[in-house]
Amino acid sequence: MTHRATLIGLALAGVLALGMGVWVGDWLFGHRPAPAPDIAGAYLSDRQPFEEFRLIHHSGQPFTRADLRGKWTFLYFGYSYCPDVCPLALVELNRLQKLLVERGADADTAYVFISVDPQRDTPQRLRDYVRYFNPKFQGATGPADELSKLAKPLYVFYQRGADGKETGNYTIDHTSTITLIDPDGLPRAIFTPPQNPERMAQDFLKIRAAAS
User: What angle, rounded to 10 degrees, do the helices at 85-102 and 197-211 form?
Assistant: First the structure.
């Protein structure tokens, strides 16, 4: 099994474990969770707030937990030197954004690319990279300990490959999920690859309607 397949498997296992934990907790304590929207992605009915974190936005300003509030945010972890899955995910996010514009549902959304390669992905590089795909896209990165505060609760795993250690031309194996964060700054859905923009748009509209 490749590193990438292992990472995807771990992410899926984490999402399933999270869902089971919520169900067991509700059963034990007699709570009845609100009906989950019928979506193609994995709906997260109960999640805790993120630990406070401090990253650097592509503008050079801090990017913190507060920046995830007040809007619906599609969050993706990757790196700008990624040869395949990251460009594909950003293309799909661009298509999603266009679909939401067509449906009049894009005004309160954000799309954030979190780089797991702070050594090479400077704010300037991140800005140029994400805006190549869509001018609305944002980028952020930061030290490993700060990145983990955002990545671990979302079951996002990443690991530098053994290649390119001498030249710095290395790759990073990483989870390729897209997470939807609600206006309270809480994770509400996870979309695993292959992501379908049309289905994500439909899921988003259902989730937003259920939250209103």
Answer: 60
User: Torsion angle of alpha carbons 207, 156, 143, 132, nearest 10°?
Assistant: -60
- As a whole number of angstroms, the longest Cα–Cα distance in the chain is 57
Q: Are the CB atoms for 158 and 116 separated by under 8 Å?
A: yes
Structural domains for the chain:
3-161+172-211 (3.40.30.10)
Dihedral of CA atoms 19, 111, 117, 192 in degrees, nearest 10, equals 40
**Calpha distance 203→42 (Å, rounded):** 10
- pTM more than 0.90: no
- Cα separations (Å) of 52 from 3, 63, 96, 109, 190? 29, 11, 29, 22, 21
For residue 106, what are the contacts with CB-CB under 8 A and spacing of at least 6? 97, 100
Task: Name residue 136's amino acid.
Answer: K
Per-residue model confidence as pLDDT tens digits over 88-145: 999 999 999 999 999 999 999 999 999 999 999 999 999 999 999 999 999 999 999 9
Q: Which two tokens stand for residue 103?
A: 């449906």
